[in-house]
Specification:
Layout (H helix, E strand, L loop, with lengths): L7 H64 L1 H10 L6 E8 L2 E8 L19 H88 L1
Antiparallel strand pairs: 1-2
Helix pairs in contact: 1-2, 1-3
Length: 214
């Protein structure tokens, strides 16, 4: 046990520390519960986007296979080489229950039209054009997924951190303080008993002297 001065002032200080620790623990539990509610909502959105991404990839791969089978690999490579453009994202931030969370948004939608992809519209088939659209759709979903997954990870980390602090207060700090309070009270009670015993002894001596002087 940490060395403790068994005094009344120390006892009052330890009791105040327990009170503050319990108040802090309650606030942390409220924060953790609020973060958990937010986390579950973000988790639902993450699962939705994950399924959407899997479906988009599956559809894009199917379109690619059809286009390659009908139009040939050369036509696909030619369209791919002619395609121009870049994917841009913007980074910002927000706060959830005081927790800073990065926000990823699309700078410009990666989904373009047949006239803005860079290749001649008359030079590719509708199958190739549809394949390009479906792969652009994958990029679009990936950006959304990156944002929500980043938010999910940040909330998860904060929940774990908050939970560790709650456990430290609940299982270590408060029990140790209570143990110290018990120790101080035992020492003070023992001193009080000793003082009472001495007072009784002194009183008895005084009464004995009074009897002898009569």
């Amino acid at each position: 046990m940490e060395e403790v001065r068994p005094t009344r002032s120390e006892l009052l200080e330890r009791r105040e520390q327990i009170k503050l620790a319990e108040q802090g623990m309650d606030l942390l539990k409220q924060k953790r519960d609020a973060l958990l509610i937010e986390f579950m909502g973000v988790m639902d959105e993450t699962l939705r986007l994950s399924e959407l991404l899997q479906r988009a990839v599956s559809e894009a791969q199917y379109s690619l296979a059809v286009a390659e089978a009908v139009d040939g690999a050369v036509a696909l490579r030619s369209a791919g080489m002619a395609t121009k453009g870049e994917v841009t994202v913007e980074m910002s931030g927000t706060k959830i229950m005081g927790v800073p969370v990065p926000v990823v948004t699309k700078g410009e939608s990666p989904i373009r039209t047949s006239f803005t992809r860079g290749y001649a519209v008359t030079g590719v088939s509708s199958r190739v054009d549809e394949t390009a659209h479906k792969f652009e759709r994958i990029l679009d979903v990936i950006i959304e997924y990156a944002d929500i997954e980043t938010r999910l990870k940040r909330l998860g980390d904060e929940i774990q951190k908050t939970n560790r602090r709650v456990n430290a207060l609940e299982q270590i700090t408060v029990p140790q303080l209570r143990e110290q309070v018990t120790y101080i009270r035992q020492i003070l009670d023992e001193r009080a008993r000793e003082d009472l015993f001495r007072l009784k002894k002194v009183k008895k001596k005084i009464e004995s002297k009074k009897v002898q002087t009569r």
